[in-house]
Amino acid sequence: MFKTIYKYYLLFCYISLVIFSTHSVAKTIHYPVSIKGNTQDNYHGIIIDDPYRGLEDLNSEQTQSWIIEQNRFTNSYLDNLSEKKQIKLLLEKIYNKENQSVPFRKKSKIFTYYNNGAWQQSKLFYQENTQNKKKLVIDPNLLSEDGTVSIGSVSVSPNSELIAYSISDGGSDWKTWKIKHIKNGDILEDTIKWSKFSNAEWAKDNSGFYYSGYSKPQKGDEYKELNRNQKLFFHTLGQPQSKNQLIYERPEHPEWGWGTTITEDGRYLILSVSEGTDERNRLFYKDLRQDESFVELIPDLRAQFTFLGNEGSIFWFFTNLDAPKGKVISIDINHPEENNWKVLIDEQNDALTNVEILENYILCQYLNNVASEVFLYEKESLKKKTINFNRQGIISNISSNQDSDIFYFSYTNYIQPNQIYKYNAKNDDISLVWAKEIPQFNGDHYISQQVFYPTKDGTMIPMFISHHQDTELGVNAPLLLYGYGGFDISILPNFKERYLAWMLMGGVVAVPNIRGGGEYGEEWHQQGMLKNKQNVFDDFVSAAEYLHTMNISSPKKTVIEGRSNGGLLVGATMLQRPDLFGVTLPSVGVMDMLRFNKFTIGWAWESDYGSPEKLEDFQVLVKYSPYHNIERGECYPPTLITTSELDDRVVPSHSYKFAARMQEAQNCTNPILIRIETRAGHGAGTPRNKTIEYISDVYGFALHYLLQN
Predict the structure, then answer these.
(1) d(Cα 501, Cα 441) in Å, to the nearest integer?
(2) Which is the most buried residue in 206, 465, 549, 700, by most CB within 10 A?
(3) Which residues contact 10 (CB under 8 A, 6 or more apart)?
(4) Strands 361-367 and 135-138, sheet pairing
C-alpha cells in the first residue's frame, strides 16, 4: 500500500514539474501576427534569411495593418501604467516653463527662438537692439493644428530684410523652403521643394540663395527611396523652382554632397564636398566676380577641412590633416601648394571641436575630458588668452560675427539648466542674458560626477553619473544607461528634462563617452568604427559592469537607452549580454546591418559601418547586426522598441523587422513591444505634447519593469 501511494506521489511530482517547468519557459504572450516570408540573400556565398522582408514595403496593406495592431497591442501595456502617469505629471510641470535659444545677429537685428512653455513649437522673434521689444518673425504653430509641422533651418539675407526658412512636415528630412519679409511679415510666392541636408546661402546682393536638392522621388517612395546625386542650385527671388539655375552636380559621383559658404567679402563661393558621413571632405571654390568653374583646392579625401573665413586670397581652415585632434591653418589660394600652407594654431593635447572667427580674435573651443575650454588668439600676434568663464560643463551654440568681438553662448551640464551669456572679447566682460528656470528645482540638491572605468581592452572611458543627493545607491536603484558611440559625435553633459524626471523618480542617470564619438579627436572615433565597432559595444557593456561592481545599481535594475546609431548600440548589446539589463529601449535604431545602405541616406553610413557588399566588412557586420543575431528560445529583457512612420533617416522597417523577429524568438513573459509614432520623423521638430507622451511611455515602461524585478 505504501509503495503504491509513493508511486502515485512520484508521478504527481513528475507531472507537476513538467507542468510548472513548461509554464515557466513557454512563450505565453500572444503577439500580433507578423507574416513571415522565405526571402534569402546570398552574401559572399553565405545564405542569409530575411523572413520579414515584407515589412520593408512601408505602404502595403499588410504593413499598415501590422502597424495598427502592434500599436494597439503596445498601448494595452502602456495605458494603465502608474509609473507612466507619474512621469507625465512631472514632465508637464518641467516643460511648462519658458525656453530660449542663443541669440544670433544679422546687421542690426538680433534673432532668438522662444517658447513660453505652452507652445508646441518655439517661435522665432527679432529685435532691432537689445532694448527694443521683440517682434514675431515665424510662428510654426500656425502651420498645423497638432504642431507636427516644424521649422528646420533659417537664413537671413545680408541686408537683413528677408528670411529663407525650411519647413518639415511630420519630422521628415525633406524640406520645403519659403521666403518671408521680416518687417511686414509678407510671405513670397517662392517655394522650393525636395531639398534635404541643405542650408540656404544668400548671395551678397540679396538676389537669391544657393541650396542643395534632389530629384523628385517616385510617388509612395518619398520616405525610403535612396537619396543620391545631390545637386547645387541657385534660386533667384521671384522665379519658380523650375527656373532655378543648376550650379553644380557630379552624376559620375552620386554619393557626393554639397555644403556652401560665401565669403564675407562676397567674392568666393566655397563648396565643401562630402562623401556620405565620412568626416573627410574635398574643398572647391569659385570666384564669383569672374565667370569661372570651380577650382579644386583640396581635390582628394585626405582629412577634414572646414572653411573659417578669409582675408583676400588668404583662406583659413580647421583641419585634422596630420593632426587627429585638430589645428588651424591658412592657405593662400594664389600659392596653393601644400608646402606653402601655414599653421596658425597647432594641434593641442585636447580635441579642437569648434573655431569661430571674430573681428580681432580666433576663438578655439576644446574638449578637456568632456569639459569645455575656450581660448582666444589675437589675429595679428596669435597671443593666447582664456575666456573668463571657469565652470565645469559644456559651452555650446557659440554665435558670433566676423565684424565684432562680441559673441553669445550657452552653458549647461547634467544638473545645470541652460544659461545664455554674452561675452566681449575686447574687455573680457561677461553678462548673463537668460537662465532657464525649473519649478522647484535646485541644482545644489543633485550630484553629477565624472568617473573613468576600464573597458575590455584596458582603455579608460569617461562616464558621468548623476542623481538626486537623497537617492539611495545600491542594488535597488533604477539605473538609466544611455549611449551613442559613432560618427565622430560627442555626447556632452547637457541638462535634459527627461533625465530630471528620471532622477525625480529616484533613478540614476549614467552616460559613458564610449569610443566612436569625437570626445578625444579622430583617433577616438576610429577606435569605434568599421572593424573596430565591437569596441563600442564592449565599452557600453563595461560601463554597466562597472556601475554594478561599484554597487550603484544591479543588472535587474538597469535600463539601457540609445537613439539611431545608439539604437543599434542598444540592440547589439542587449543581444550580446541580456543578463546585464533589466529593460532595453532601442529607439529609431539601425537594426539590419546588411541592408541599411538600401534606403534614403543609409548608403552614407558606410564610412562608419562598412559595406555589406565587401567581404571583409560583411564578416564584421553580420556578427553584430541586431536583426541577424536574435537567438530563438532566449529570454530577453522587457523591451520597448520605438520608431516613427515618417522617419526617412533610419527608415522604420529596421525597427519593424527587429520587433517581429524578437517577438517570434522571445521564450518568456518579458514583453517585446514596439511603439510606432504616426506623425513624426527621426526626432527633430517633434512638438511638445508628443515629446512628453514619448518620454512618459518609454520611461514609464522602464520603471514599471525595473521596480518589479
Answers:
(1) 11
(2) 465
(3) none
(4) unpaired
**Residue 640 grid coordinates:** 520597448
| CA–centroid distance for 676 within its chain | 19
- Distance CA(516)–CA(484), nearest Å, equals 8
Closest of 268, 260, 263, 265 to residue 235, by C-alpha? 260
Residue 18 vs residues 10, 14, 15, 28, 316: alpha-carbon distances, Å: 12, 6, 5, 16, 75
pLDDT at 17: 29
Compute φ and ψ for 551, nearest 5 degrees. 60, 35
| Dihedral sign computed on CA atoms, order 391, 395, 399, 404 | positive
Give CA–CA dist 144/512, Å, rounded: 38
Phi and psi at residue 473, to the nearest 5° = -75, 150
CA dihedral 461, 466, 469, 473 (to 10 degrees): -60
Decide if 61 contacts 676 (C-beta within 8 A).
Answer: no
Q: What pLDDT does 27 receive? A: 57
Average confidence (pLDDT) over 303-319: 97
| pLDDT bracket for residue 13 (50, 70, 90) | very low
Dihedral sign for Cα 364, 259, 160, 204, please. positive
Q: Which residues contact 602 (CB under 8 A, 6 or more apart)?
A: 226, 590, 596, 650, 651
Active-site hit among 235, 654, 682, 704: 682
Nearest to 260 by CA among 199, 174, 330: 199
Cβ–Cβ < 8 Å for 436, 99: yes
For the chain, which domains are there?
445-708 (3.40.50.1820)
Coil, helix or strand at residue 336: coil
What is the C-alpha separation between 6 and 12, in angstroms, rounded? Answer: 10
Contact criterion met (CB below 8 Å) for 513 and 459:
no
- 682 annotated active-site: yes
Instruction: Give the rounded percent of residues in the chain with a pLDDT score beyond 90.
Output: 91
Average pLDDT, stretch 592-608?
Answer: 97
Three cell numbers written together for 671? 514583453
Q: Rounded to an integer, what distance in angstroms lies between the CA atom of residue 299 and that of residue 286?
A: 14
Structure confidence at residue 26 (pLDDT): 42
The answer to whether 23 is a known catalytic residue is no
| Sequence-separated (6 or more) residues with CB below 8 Å from residue 535 | 455, 456, 457, 459, 515, 516, 527, 528
Query: Which among 46, 100, 55, 49 is positioned nearest to 435, based on CA atoms?
Result: 100
508 neighbors 480 (Cβ within 8 angstroms)? yes
Q: Which of 554, 564, 607, 644 is catalytic?
A: 564
Joined together, the cell numbers standing for residue 285 give 571654390
3-state SS, residue 661:
helix
- Measuring CA to CA, how many Å separate 365 from each of 377, 414, 492? 11, 20, 14
Dist. CA 419–CA 253, nearest whole Å: 44
